[in-house]
Please model this.
Amino acid sequence: MFVFVLIFMVTVLYYINFRRLRKPLYEFSERMPTIGEVPVLGHTHWFIGGPERLLENIRKLAELVDSSGGLSKIWIGPSLYVVSLNPEDVQKILENCLEKDSSYKFLQTWLGNGLFVAPVELWKVHRRVLLPIFHNRVIEDYIEVFGQQGDVLVQRLAEQVGKPEFDVYKYITSCMLDIVFETAMGEKMDVQHNPDTPYLRARNCVMSIINMRLFKAWLQPDALFNLTPYAKMQKENIDLTHKFTDEVVNKKRALFESGGLQKEGRKDLLELLLTRDMKFTNEELREHIDSITIAGNDTTALVVSYALLLLGSHEEEQDRVYEELKGIFGDSERLPTKEDLNKMDYLERVIKETMRLYTVVPIIGRKTQKELQLSNVTLPAGVGCAVAPFVMHRSKRLWGPDADCFNPDRFLPEHSAKRHPCAFIPFSFGARNCIGRHFGMLAMKSILATVLRTYKVTSRTIDRLKIEILLFPVPGHMISIHKRNTAC
Model:
């Protein structure tokens, strides 16, 4: 009995001290507008359920915030977040709050201090070093790889011509992995012909476990997670992915130190990192290459897959894309060049409208490091900031009454010029935006152009979505394809 009383007293004293230390946070919270909060639980009940229900709850909560002026607070357990859907406030948050939210720690277990999740002070140093290797001139050297792998994709898709619906994402993600492996590491993996590899199985397993931890509160504390079989499974699969990248890094390092790297011609990103003035350790190289490979593959593959879904259910827009491609290529079956990609104005608008409607990174989390003045509130240091591009991009307040409709011409220059720069942020915004955005856009254009020159796509409307770190359609990216009569 004495032990139970002692435990109770210690718990009460801990809670009192916890509240005392966080008193400024609670005082700030009381001054903030709130929507959908319940006693004790705060907003935690909105974040319970499977991935489909979870996204719908987040969407409803964010839409309530949007309709009430675009600024509110949410409590998830002991963590306070300010939710802002006003472009002016979002710009201030993304420009001034460069520290990632604590929820990214689950990815950090895997990606270490790679650029995507690195603490801000380390990120500042490494971003300066990595920025030149993502220069447009460097990325444009990879256009040939985009075309070659897009051509393989077209050949692989031939097995689905005239057949019932199939999930195109499986084909697109294999194509993107081949592109990313070759451009980031110089490794020709041929994933398109060999999709079931130990590396990919391990990678998918780790992503599944991280997603589970993000949205299941009882698995978030390391002490509890480490008691589950998932902890061992995660470690084994992380070790397997690290082993693969470590072997590539060690091989490239040995070539570099022996003077065996090629002096002329296209260089992969790992080679370029090895030649920078800042000397990265092998572990740092692995962390950056893993971040590029993992963050760059799924996001790009998802946008391409969503674009095919949208064009498959919007015949007029698909015909406009095809006519644009026909005007560029004629009857030639050659691979796209830089000049060709620069002429694909309508296809680029299709890609941007796809990223607006199906923002594959639906939530961005940041944390204030010092006081930040927003439009009508001053945020103290240490507060989480949640930006929801998926909701902002469909906001009728920002995009008009037809915000849910597919209309690529929203991105005509004369329309975009009137829009706040943070009304559309598929690559985030500010200094910590996506370093690979030019790579992604060129790769997406090249793959879509190659597929749409060869096949006509049909699909149904997407009506059910889920969040699994990224945004996925519940039934998959289901399309059917038919060979076009005329090549272009």
Q: What stands out?
A: Residues 32-483 form a domain with the Cytochrome p450 fold (CATH 1.10.630.10). The CA atoms of residues 311 and 318 lie 5 Å apart.
